[in-house]
Design a protein that fits this description.
Blueprint: E1 14-17, E2 26-31, H1 38-42, E3 53-58, E4 62-65, E5 73-76, H2 83-101, E6 110-115, H3 118-130, E7 136-137
Parallel strand pairs: 2-3, 2-6, 6-7
Antiparallel strand pairs: 1-3, 4-5
Length: about 140
């Protein structure tokens, strides 16, 4: 018989381009696809880096070796097993990230969410479930 222990603590990771400060007026939250990691995914956004912009890339909570034990570390936002629980977990993770970062930025903040592949579904589920204050989704 399967059981669930709710609210187990896990350390989550995110990477950023730019500094968290009150001078930031443009925040991008960018969610990677299946089998990627946040650090590498963030490199794709270096071309839009600007002084007033903070770009953050949260990482999916499930890490694994891509291609066996000697492959690169990759991550995933969810699998089909315990799907609804994993969605709840990553929504909680994105809520926590949002509520910690946004208050440190300018009151005139514009927020863009970007998702790729599995990150697109992640962003859309989070927006639908939690309705964070955002201006744009890509």
């Amino acid at each position: 018989m399967e059981h669930h222990l709710r609210k187990a603590t896990k350390t989550a990771h995110f990477y950023s381009l730019g500094n968290i400060s009150n001078d930031i007026t443009d925040l991008w939250i960018c969610c990677h696809g299946y089998g990627q990691n946040a650090e590498d995914f963030l490199k794709d956004f270096e071309c839009i880096q600007a002084e007033e912009r903070l770009i953050i890339s949260p990482e999916g909570l499930s890490r694994f070796y891509w291609g066996g034990f000697h492959g690169p570390i990759a991550s995933s936002w969810m699998t089909s097993k315990d799907r609804l629980i994993e969605i709840e977990d990553y929504c909680n993770w994105l809520d926590q990230l949002y509520s910690e970062i946004v208050p440190q930025l300018s009151p005139n903040l514009r927020i863009t969410l970007a998702g790729f592949s599995q990150g697109t579904a992640t962003v859309m589920r989070w927006v639908h479930a939690r309705q964070p204050k955002i201006q744009r989704i890509l």
